């Protein structure tokens, strides 16, 4: 529990529980908030998005997958979306969504054994949300700006 503290840590644990139950404990960071609704063009049609405080566009992962006609399956036991696209080569993202955003996370992987994670997003109101630009980068979708819009999948 605490470096140099009692070997059992029991009293520290009981004190922390008392603080949590009384509401005295310092709360963690505020969960990521969507500031306003928006819309972007994806494959020539409007797609509902939400814009966070950092200006990132988020969309329902299933809406994006359906727009690009990519088969998928929700694996609730692992909070994972399995995508049926064998031409996806996951990249390493330094700025992948982390648990520190304050929402439960989900992972998107290619539908095969020991598949690496394509991207991570959040589960908000029992729905899986991902950053639109990260989705496009990971799934080989061309992007245009001014206005921001998603085009077709490259090579697919």
Report on the structure:
By secondary structure, this protein is an alpha+beta fold. The chain folds into two domains: 1-29, no CATH class; 31-153, no CATH class. The protein is built from three helices and ten strands. A ten-stranded mixed beta sheet has the order 4-5-6-7-8-3-2-1-10-9, with helices on one face. The termini are far apart.
List keywords for this structure.
10-stranded mixed β-sheet; single chain; alpha+beta; 156 residues; 2 domains; 37% strand
Could you give the topology of this structure?
Blueprint: H1 10-22, E1 34-42, E2 45-52, E3 57-60, H2 61-67, E4 72-75, E5 80-83, E6 105-110, E7 117-124, E8 127-131, H3 132-138, E9 141-144, E10 149-153
Parallel strand pairs: 1-10, 5-6
Antiparallel strand pairs: 1-2, 2-3, 3-8, 4-5, 6-7, 7-8, 9-10
Give the spatial strand order of the biggest sheet. Answer: 4-5-6-7-8-3-2-1-10-9
Task: State the domain count.
Answer: 2
* Morphology call: globular
How much helical structure, as a percent, in the residues? 10-25%
Q: How many whole angstroms does the radius of gyration measure?
A: 20 Å
User: What is the overall number of helices?
Assistant: 3
Structural class: alpha+beta
Q: Compute the average pLDDT.
A: 84
What is shown here, in short?
This protein has three helices and ten strands. It is an alpha+beta fold and 156 residues long.
